[in-house]
Write a structure and sequence with these properties.
Helix content: 40-55%
Structural class: alpha+beta
Strand content: 15-25%
Radius of gyration: 34 Å
Shape: elongated
Number of helices: 27
Largest sheet: 6 strands, mixed
Distance between the termini: 73 Å
Number of strands: 20
């Protein structure tokens, strides 16, 4: 196996390039700057690596940056005993190997000068320009991050703010951490463990999100060796033991080359060893490892179409393992990754995993955002258009997940909430794209629901969401979205409405969870009223109503908090508390009757409510009840009612129904849309109406909505105790 698999601390190098001796570079650095007509020998390797990716790169600025870095760090030593200049040189070399552009490499050479020497940002700006100054300033802020246990959440929040406007800052930080992890052996074990833990929990997921697989895999192995030494040693022994036997991937790779050559497909077929953590994961998944589990085949071609041609030949000439096929070219991962994944069966049943991609896809797969170059090399007009008024810059290469991360970190109420949601967000390993009805797109994590889409599109306005349409069909807020869905959240006209605690069960994005939690914390009484509220409404012992009725000598008669008169009922028996049943939501002029419930209160039902028949059958004596106002129910005041609308499914149906309700001056308290059955849809609305006399007109207006064939009062099955 290659050194990549057997030595996790080995730097990534192109084939044929000599090993880089940082101690020798350090000795050269101590000799001071050389003449101005050539590059210092100490950065010769950086120059070679940079020219390999950018043949026309101007290296003068690199020489100038090295001279400043070396002179400013002269006399400083690392804990390993090496001259300090070896660190920025190593970090810059890592980025040069990945293909970073000249500006990033210049900033990398200078990334510690402002923090650790007398060099100022103004000097950097004057000598190297605004872009390099911006990057050095961002990395300097990261150097101040304290990864101590108590400070971790808040300091990492600051790190995101410092780096979020330019992903190149985070790329330099990742390369900086990689070199520090390579040389971590000089530190105390407890400090090694603390740094490795933060690397594992935060920086490795960020490297994955940025698509920088070359950094991510080596960081994983280094952290694995420190945090789980026994499992690391076991995995190392397995990899070392596999090198003494004939590699079955070699035989399969040769067969693949022959197959593609016969099909006249120009391709490069390589054996790509798995790194330590990858081998460990395969062992956990499969138990006993096979010879082909220590690596994968990588097929590189020139054009996208050739990828599918290779796939066709492999599936024709080999037995494919269909369950292993994934198309990340048609649907790229959230971190820009593109490739075809498949697996084929060789002789003796050996299964080989195969990755198929173009050379450009491979470059992006290894280097991620680093391979995209300078995102600000735009023409002057485009640059001006992308420059916001507040001076912050919008990075055209910044992934959607990072934009969302920066948005919700401002709303996180405290560091612990931020830290918890950050871990959950970074744990998401796949992203989907859904479309809004106006043609816009929303990037969401896999498993996201309509709740997430509502908050992603409308922010805090989504508190009033009552449902959604997915691909033109009515759907509940808990509906899980798929890649490519079109979603339209439907908002209530009632500005006072808010989310249910149940929404937290369906929210997958940090933005949605923080917004919902914030509303519930700010409205504890409303939140408590919604806890455990079933659909249909609650049993009679906990009825849904706009205001609790207050008892009088003979009846309950009250007013709302705003002073408006509320419909009230009188019952037989002085000093009796009265409640309107939530199962049938009676309103004037319904014929009503009451039953005594636990605690001595009387719950009033409509005469035709199924609960009335059940309680009479059980021998429960009824209590006489009647509407107040001497029977003049036409001026009974505001009340709450539950209506059921049955309709045929069609586009805009829910929007038209809610519009009809709003036109009748009714406010939606809660709404439920059942999944369509045979093109028929059932809607249940609990409404607050300003006057019971308007109920017949409201029901007629709802029946007039095209597609609605019936509107009736709710008759929920419930029990009374």
């Amino acid at each position: 196996m290659s050194a990549e698999a057997t030595n996790p601390g080995a730097p990534l190098r192109k084939r044929g390039r000599p090993r880089i001796d940082l101690r020798r570079i350090g000795r050269v650095a101590l000799l001071g700057p050389v003449s101005r007509d050539r590059l210092p020998d100490a950065i010769g390797h950086v120059a070679d690596a940079h020219r390999a990716h950018h043949p026309d790169a101007d290296l003068v600025i690199l020489r100038k940056a090295y001279v400043l870095a070396e002179s400013s760090h002269r006399g400083q030593m690392r804990k390993s005993g090496e001259p300090y200049i070896t660190h920025p040189l190593a970090v810059t070399l890592i980025l040069a190997e990945l293909g970073a552009e000249t500006t990033t490499l210049t900033a990398s050479l200078l990334h510690d000068t402002v923090e650790d020497t007398e060099v100022t940002l103004d000097q950097v700006r004057e000598q190297f320009g605004e872009e390099v100054c911006y990057l050095v300033d961002g990395v300097t802020k990261l150097e101040k991050v304290d990864y101590g246990a108590a400070a971790e959440p808040e300091t990492f929040r600051k790190m995101l703010v410092a780096t979020g406007n330019d992903v190149r800052v985070m790329s330099i930080k990742l390369a900086d951490r990689l070199h520090n992890m390579r040389t971590l052996g000089v530190m105390r074990p407890e400090k090694q463990a603390r740094i490795a833990k933060v690397t594992r929990d935060v920086l490795i997921p960020l490297a994955e999100r940025l698509g920088v697989q070359a950094l991510k895999t080596e960081l994983e192995d280094l952290a694995f060796a420190i945090l789980r030494p026994e499992e690391y040693e076991h995995t190392r022994a397995l990899i070392a033991g596999s090198g003494g036997t004939e590699d079955p991937l070699t035989e399969i790779a040769e067969r693949v080359r022959t197959t593609l050559r016969d099909a006249d497909i120009s391709a490069e077929v390589l054996i790509r060893p798995r790194h330590f953590v990858s081998v460990h994961r395969v062992r956990i998944k499969r138990g006993e490892l096979r010879g082909t589990d220590f690596g994968r085949l990588l097929v590189l071609v020139s054009e996208d179409a050739d990828c599918y041609a290779v796939l066709g030949e492999l599936h024709t000439c080999f037995t494919p393992v269909i369950s292993e096929f994934k198309d990340f070219i048609a649907a790229p991962k959230f971190n820009l990754y593109q490739s075809l994944h498949t697996a084929v069966v060789g002789r003796d049943g050996a299964v080989a995993e195969v990755l198929i991609r173009t050379h450009q896809m491979h470059k992006v797969a290894e280097a991620g955002v680093v391979a995209l170059g300078n995102p600000y090399t735009l023409d002057s007009t485009a640059a001006q258009q992308s420059e916001p008024a507040d001076g912050e810059r919008a990075d055209p290469t910044r992934p959607g997940w990072l934009s969302r991360l920066l948005d919700w970190q401002e709303s996180a109420p405290d560091p612990d909430t931020f830290w918890t949601t950050l871990h959950a967000d970074l744990a998401q390993d796949r992203e989907i794209t859904v479309f809004s009805t106006d043609g816009g797109t929303l990037g969401l994590p896999a498993g996201a629901s309509c709740v997430d889409a509502a908050y992603a599109q409308y922010g805090d306005e989504a508190h009033g969401c009552i449902g959604a349409r997915v691909n033109g069909r009515l759907a509940t807020l808990s509906t899980v979205l798929s890649d490519g869905d079109t979603v339209q959240p439907l908002l209530s006209q009632d500005a006072a409405s808010g989310p249910s605690p149940d929404w937290l069960d369906h929210a997958r994005t940090a933005a949605a969870r923080i917004a919902i939690t914030g509303w519930l914390d700010a409205h504890p009484e409303d939140a408590q009223a919604l806890v455990g509220q079933p659909d249909p409404p609650r049993p009679q012992s906990q009825p849904q109503q706009s205001q609790p009725q207050q008892p009088t000598d003979e009846a309950s008669s009250g007013r709302s908090k705003q002073g408006a008169r509320v419909a009230s009922v009188a019952v037989d028996g002085p000093g009796t508390a009265v409640r309107l049943a939530g199962c049938c939501t009676p309103v004037p002029p319904d014929e009503v009757t009451g039953f005594t419930v636990r605690g001595g209160a009387v719950t009033v039902h409509r005469q035709e409510c199924p609960a009335v028949a059940r309680m009479q059958a059980a021998g429960r004596p009824p209590v006489g009840a009647r509407w107040n106002d001497d029977g003049d129910w036409r001026d009974a005041g505001e009340c709450r009612v539950t209506l059921v609308a049955e309709s045929f499914g069609r586009p805009r149906l829910l929007a038209d129904l809610t519009e009809a309700i709003a036109t009748a001056d009714a406010a939606i308290v809660s709404a439920t849309v059942e999944p369509p059955s045979e093109q028929r849809v059932r809607h249940t609305y609990t409404l607050h109406i300003p006057d019971a006399a308007g109920l017949p007109a409201l029901m007629r207006a709802m029946r007039d909505v095209p597609g609605v064939y019936d509107v009736s009062r709710a008759q929920h099955q419930t029990s009374t105790t």
